[in-house]
Specification:
The protein has 481 residues and is an alpha+beta fold. Among the domains are: 176 residues, no CATH class; 78 residues, no CATH class. 40% of the residues lie in helices and 12% in strands. It is built from 16 helices and 13 strands. The strands form four sheets. Strands 2, 6, 7, 8, 9, 10 and 11 form a seven-stranded antiparallel sheet that branches. It has a two-stranded antiparallel ribbon with strand order 1-3. Helix 4 packs parallel to helix 7, helix 10 runs antiparallel to helix 13 and helix 15 packs antiparallel against helix 16. The longest helix has 23 residues. The structure holds adenosine monophosphate (AMP) and magnesium ion.
Length: 481
């Protein structure tokens, strides 16, 4: 369907007015299309072949039929401290598309100007952070991890000041929901309980429609959010993703990865790695993420107490650790090519993480190399600083593999589909950004291809498959975006 034929709806605007502000986007000067995501276009049933039209659309200059633009209000715990009002300070919602499968996707322009919730911010997003979000959300999707997505990214000649002058960009983001834990916190802490209930009903209809007529629907809602969050945490840990800013306003009630900021994929394995340079105490360090997921669920739990008895919510939380561990075990078992996992395998995994940590092994490369392991240890031993811990672990792994009923060939095949050859490490994104800032976007195109299918060999992109060069390893990133 051409953009001009699309009919948007705006279900969120049926909520009480306190939930949002109606606001128009402020277009960027001299916009140009950098990349469009044909798979997301297909998902939305959109024909985006007219790039001129698409650019105008992403720049907020082309309002589609039925569009009513607005920013959402929310609050959140930032680094453990409650901030009573945040909201979409630089994201403007431009309507909802319902596709042929009756799936609803909410479109949002990130970087399209100020809103009521901008506080002292300029409502903009710079090219660098926009490229990071655009590519990384696709990479997470390619890895099978729940995430928001993006239809397109535009650049511009619009000057935006951060630590220095940069250029503004807009990413058109797409998600089945933009509701965050912090959206609930806003109404609970400001004691707007009528709005809180309306939001809960709306969130259930939007994300968990099978619960709509349940008697204890708010209780079941929390249980679903808890389960999805626990499983998302397991996915992040297993793939080696460090989000960096797990504030409750960056936690989706649908268990999606949202708000890509100073994130990182692990280079060499380090459980204590902190990607966010403002995170002085490591609250959001790689190893802490599952605990923070739990802490954030407790913040959501408090926000839901006006709707559900506390003791019932507490009961839900008792299952968090078990759901997380079970999912972690299942996913890590697949990475190791174990055809049936049991709790006993935790020991093998613990020993493996200890080994990876002391040997400074590149996390992604280790599993990819292990995916071809046939008893010859040469390639694996090359990955670490010295041999003994790897040999000791492989001795245990060999014993464990003997219990597998699948053939070695089948195991290799399955592991190569589970352990990506490529993840978008920050040094790769940075190279694409450095080029983009000079007006060259070919690396954005290349990394997008890798992102979409990280398990394929992509012989032409082999240079991205190795360990991260020493000078770029385990760096910290600025939050300024
Ligand atoms: P983030 O760390 O990107 O999740 O943002 C936290 C809060 O700050 C959200 O309410 C954002 O909308 C807001 N924010 C971040 N950057 C800007 C900006 N440049 N202008 C306005 N609001 C912003
Ligand atoms: Mg955010």
């Amino acid at each position: 369907m051409r953009l001009k034929d699309v009919k948007l709806t705006n279900p969120y605007l049926k909520l009480p007015e306190l939930c949002y502000e109606r606001v128009e986007p402020s277009p960027l000067t001299k916009p140009f299309l950098i990349h469009a995501n044909s798979n997301v276009a297909k998902m939305l049933n959109l024909d985006i072949s007219d790039h001129n039209e698409l650019t105008k659309f992403v720049n907020g200059e082309l309002k589609l039929d039925g569009a009513e633009n607005f920013a959402m209000c929310y609050a959140g715990h930032q680094f453990g401290h409650y901030v009573p009002r945040l909201g979409d300070g630089r994201a403007i919602n431009i309507g909802t598309i319902t596709n042929e499968f009756n799936e609803k996707y909410h479109l949002q322009l990130k970087g399209a100007g100020q809103t009521l919730y901008s506080r002292s911010g300029d409502g903009r997003a710079v090219l660098r952070s926009s490229i990071r979000e655009y590519l990384m959300s696709e990479a997470m999707h390619g890895l099978g991890i729940e995430t928001t997505r993006a239809l397109a990214i535009i650049g511009s000649e619009h000057s935006v000041y951060r630590e220095t002058w940069e250029k503004g960009a807009i990413v058109l983001r797409v998600s089945p929901t933009w509701i965050r834990f912090g959206t609930f916190e806003y109404f609970a802490h400001s004691k707007n309980f009528k709005e809180l209930e309306a939001l809960a009903d709306y969130a259930i209809d939007e994300c968990y429609p099978h619960l709509s007529s349940e008697e204890n629907k708010y209780f079941h809602f929390f249980a679903e959010v808890m389960g999805k969050t626990a499983r998302l945490m397991a996915q992040w840990q297993v793939v080696g993703f460090n989000h960096g800013v797990m504030n409750t306003d960056n936690m989706s009630i649908l268990g999606l990865t949202i708000d890509y900021g100073p994130f990182a994929f692990l280079d060499e394995y380090d459980v204590n790695y902190i990607c966010n340079h403002l995170d002085y105490h490591g609250r959001y360090s790689f190893g802490n993420q599952p605990r923070v997921g739990e802490w954030n669920l407790r913040a959501l739990m408090v926000a839901l107490e006006p709707l559900v008895a506390k003791e019932h919510l507490e009961k839900v939380m008792e299952h968090y650790g078990r759901i997380y561990s079970r999912h972690f075990l299942y996913l890590m078992g697949k990475k190791l090519g174990l055809d049936e996992v049991s709790n006993r395998d935790f020991e093998l995994m613990k020993q493996m993480f200890g080994m990876l940590q002391v040997l400074h092994v590149d996390y992604t490369l280790f599993f990819r190399t292990l995916s071809r392991y046939s008893g010859d240890r040469k390639e694996l031993l090359k990955l670490g600083l010295f041999h003994t811990p790897m040999n000791e672990w492989l001795d245990e792994y060999d014993v464990r593999l003997e219990q597998n009923s699948t053939s070695q060939e089948e195991r290799h095949k399955q592991m190569l589909k589970t352990n990506p050859k490529y993840v978008l490490k920050n040094y790769m994104l940075q190279e694409a950004i450095d080029q983009a800032e000079k007006g060259v976007f070919s690396l954005v195109d290349d990394l997008f291809k890798i992102a979409q299918d990280p398990y394929a060999e992509h012989k032409e992109f082999e240079r991205w498959a190795g360990a991260t060069p020493d000078e770029f390893k385990n760096q910290k990133l600025s939050c300024s975006s």
